[in-house]
Write a structure and sequence with these properties.
With 279 residues, the chain is α+β, with helices and mostly antiparallel strands. It is built from 6 helices and 17 strands.
Length: 279
Amino acid sequence: MQYEFDKRSVKVIEHIRNSLPFFCFENFANGSSDTQHAVFTRQGGTSPWPFDTLNLSISVRDRAENVYANRSRAYATHDRSNDSLVHAHLIHGADVAIVTHQDYGQYIGPVDGLITNEKGCGLTMNYADCAPILIFDPLRGGIGLGHAGWQGAVKDLPGAMVRAMQQAFGSEPADLSAAVGPCIGPCCYEVGEPVLSAVKDTFNESQALLRPAPDTGGSELSGDKRYFDLPEANRQRLLEAGVEQVEVADFCTACRTDLFFSHRAEKGCTGRFGAILML
Ligand SMILES: [Zn+2]
């Protein structure tokens, strides 16, 4: 069953450059030319199944030469290379690092959030069901890129990114523009313990985030099965941190394995799509 995302969701716009497709949020930068971003799909690369085709991660069992060829193609759409972007070693935590161009080509961390206020500095991370978190401060010239699955949402990685930007750049949360990129939706994200307890313990509105099975219309037949609304959980974290403008991509990665890699839908045997964010 296709889950209908709420009205909070926005369309992301597809672009094609050098015959490679990518998505952009319509209102993320509010027309500002001070930042650029892209969420790549799995299309347009060179890797064979199950990494077909634009796998950008060297942490899966794809051949390194394929990954670097894919990165060249993807990053070239924004005149970047593997060595002119900052990467992160992701661990589903809530730590955030401040980076500059001196970190280009490096894997920072382990951290799940990167921030910078250096003009021209570019950030990248890879995903397969976890949510890309993008933040932009148009007034003070800062950006943040994050990676938040259920653990990042529970540990409040989005809020940690906002607070890191406040502390490092003097950002006011109300000035920030944020976006939650394509991730697994409540249509597909069946959860049990320890996710249920962790969400109930840390979110005020946990009932709304743990939905009944979509095909039972919420009847008692759904039993203990719950479906976690990861994009909404991340949006809530950004709102709690004081961000007022939050866009949420209207894609579920598990429903759309034609477009994205999904760890859940493809039973762990898949690649990672990428996001880039530049100041
Ligand atoms: Zn889905």
